[in-house]
Amino acid sequence: MSEQEPQAGADKTPAERPARHGPPVAEAPQVLDARGQASAKLLAQAAGAHALASGGGHDTPWVRVASEHLVDVAKRLRDGAFGAQMLHLIAAVDYEERIEVNYLFLSATKGHTGQVKVDVSPDAPELPSLTGLWTAAGWFERETHDLFGVVFEGNPDLSPLLLYEGFEGHPGLRSYPFNDYQEW
Amino acid sequence: MTTGQHTDTLDMMLNMGPQHPATHGVFRMVLALDGEEVVDVIPHIGYLHRGSEKLCEGESYGQVITLFDRMDYVSNINNELAFVRAAERLMDIEVPERASYVRVILAELNRIASHLLFLGTYAIDLGAITPIMYAFRDRERIQALFEATTGARMMHNYLRIGGLKEDTPADFDVRVSELLDQLRAGVDEIDRLLSLNEVFLARTKGVGIIAGPTALACGLSGPSLRGSGVAYDVRKDHPYEVYPYLAFNVPVGSTGDCWDRYYCRLLECRESISMVAQCLEQMEAGPIRAAGRRIARPPRGEVYVHSENPRGDIGVFLVSDGTDKPYRVKVRPPSFCNLVGLKLMMEGAYVGDAVSILGSLDIVLGEVDR
After folding, report:
1. Could you tell me which chain A residue has the CA closest to the CA of B92?
2. Taking CA atoms, what residue in B is nearest to A60?
3. Helix B258-282 vs helix B354-361: angle between axes, to the nearest 10 degrees?
4. What is the pTM of this model?
5. Which residues from chain A sit within 8 angstroms of residue B302, using beta carbons?
6. Using CB atoms and an 8 Å cut-off, which of residues 219-258 of chain B contact chain A?
7. Contact between B215 and B341 (Cβ < 8 Å)
């Protein structure tokens, strides 16, 4: 692994890379339907002044918060009017200059879906754990730790889940060599 | 022997798997036993990790469908549906009505096939060898119909972004209604064989109980959640495709034990049969694919879409950067989430019930590990 050449352009930020050929890139419209608007109102209520940005499409609104407010907002989503009984998914996306961690919350009885985005720096990716609020967070966080190297403070067990003990690197990251494999 | 004196004993660690017939794949768990009682269980997964989500980033949108076939490899159509719906929502594509009906017919037949596999193998787990013969007889009939329609028994690659690969064969309606009659009789047969069998009841009733709120916090979904009395079904609560036009019930259990989870699946087979029959009545001839470019290039953005798999609520988080390949695909695998509840169900159970509890979750390791 360590002897591997880095991928072409891995040292450049996306803006510095040569322009892509093909038709111009369109932006997906962000329009919430009636159900999404109702969820967005409750999501904004839970985020309060912590919301840095918001948006969303169809039935899933999102709100961006700073990592130190994540647990507060999640707790209010669970115990407040939103009623998020389920932590549906934790999905990390590597944008190279930042890693965006998406938390998807769902209320099984009220039918709300909501998404909370938190940005972490790829140099020191650290987030507070949600294991105290939802049991489901445990394995999602372990998986995100495996694949993206995000450390979840407070998760009692971050040992490899999908990867084997002693695996080097975080294969979810864009910089991880795509067609490379390790002998085991 | 002195009474009232406490003797300290060490817990016995018992390893089960990864090569064990009752784990339905390469799943390993380490059980901590105090005598006959399970005090702790540590599941180990990842033996089948192929990096499917990472692989998606290197394939075009059309090719990703084949990777979804191979995640939950006994409910392929449902998995394909989860991905194509995400891409369609991102591209704002309206699917023609006939295509939507065919999708639902195949998805529901696929659900029955998947549940038949569960009914058969769960009986084997508990020592009854006969029911799988009946279950597989009927499952094979469904596979034969799939082969005639899609060209493959299992890895279909039949759904496309915007519709279907091709229209159904000319005798599709006739074959499906014949099949439904056979399935009705087949499901009844398994019901009579198994559901109220005294040995089966003794192995499943009151075993592996999980309460509704706990199950939700663990992320359980599908029949594993509905067995605990929570009537959450994506087809009802977040309707998609043509499900709003169909009349169906959501079977729920009461105690959340293994038998409730088993019986929810059996009742769901009957609901699915009725749904397919309604689709056949309502379906009309028409186009099967929306007009559009051959190569999908969704606009830059992200979308989260979830739907009801036989195992539970499958979610697809899709990020597009405007090229012909997804920037990121993240799947919410229902089997993976259902396994989180395993520890709570097993604590305090007898070691002899471990197989019964694991079997009642109906996991598919291709999806757990991706």
Report:
1. A28
2. B304
3. 20
4. 0.87
5. 28, 93
6. 219, 221, 230, 232, 237-238
7. yes
| Residue A157: φ, ψ to 5° | -145, 105
pLDDT (tens digit, 9 = 90+) per residue, B162-219?
889 888 999 999 999 999 999 999 999 999 989 998 999 999 998 989 998 999 999 9
Which of B234, B328, B365 should be substituted to probe chain A, the one whose Cβ sees the most A Cβ atoms within 10 Å? B328
Q: What is the pLDDT of residue B99?
A: 92
Q: What residues 73-112 of chain B have any CB closer than 8 A to a CB of chain A?
A: 89-90, 92
| Interface contact A171, partner B, CB < 8 A | yes
ipTM, two decimals? 0.86
B2 class by beta-carbon count within 10 Å (0-12 exposed, 13-18 middle, 19+ buried) = exposed
Question: What are the per-10-residue average pLDDT scores of chain B (370 residues)?
Answer: 62 85 84 89 90 88 91 91 91 90 94 93 90 92 93 90 89 93 93 90 91 91 91 90 91 91 93 93 88 80 91 92 88 92 89 90 89
Query: Cβ separation of B306 and A88 shorter than 8 Å?
Result: yes
From CA A170, how far away is CA A152, in angstroms rounded?
A: 15
Q: How far is B204 from chain A (nearest CA, A)?
A: 25
* Separation between Cα atoms, residue B77 and residue B189, nearest integer Å: 26
Beta strands in chain B (DSSP E): 12-16, 19-20, 25-26, 28-34, 37-44, 159-160, 163-164, 301-309, 312-320, 326-332
Q: Write the DSSP string, B53-95.
A: HHHHTTS-HHHHHHHHHTTSTTSHHHHHHHHHHHHHHHHTPPP
Distance, CA of B169 to CA of A111 (rounded, Å): 38
Query: Which residues of A fall within a CB distance of 8 Å from B214?
Result: 135
Residue A183 corresponds to which amino acid?
Answer: E
Could you tell me if B204 and B360 are in contact, meaning their C-beta atoms sit under 8 angstroms apart? yes
Hey, is the C-beta of B148 within 8 angstroms of any chain A C-beta? no
B52, closest residue in chain A (CA to CA): A172
Half-sphere exposure of B311 (CA within 13 A, CB side): 31
- pLDDT tier, A2 (very low <50, low <70, confident <90, very high otherwise): very low
Mean pLDDT to the nearest integer, A22-46: 80
The two structure tokens encoding residue B278: 């309604």
Name the 3-class secondary structure at A152: strand
Q: In what order do the strands lie in the sheet with B12-16?
A: B12-16, B28-34, B37-44
Contact A86 B237 (CB under 8 A): no
The label of the residue with tokens 């004993």 reads: B9
Compute the nearest-CA separation of A51 from chain B (Å).
Answer: 19
* Chain A residues touching residue B218 (CB < 8 angstroms): 134-136
Say yes or no for a CB contact (<8 Å) between A108 and B232: yes
> Nearest residue of A to residue B300 by CA position?
A27
Residues of chain B contacting A93 with CB distance shorter than 8 Å: 302, 319, 327-328, 330
The residue type at A77: L
Exposure string of B313-349, with b = 16+ CB inside 10 Å and e = fewer, is bbbbbbbbbbebbbbbbbbbbbbbbbbbbbbbbbeeb
For residue A165, pLDDT beyond 70: yes
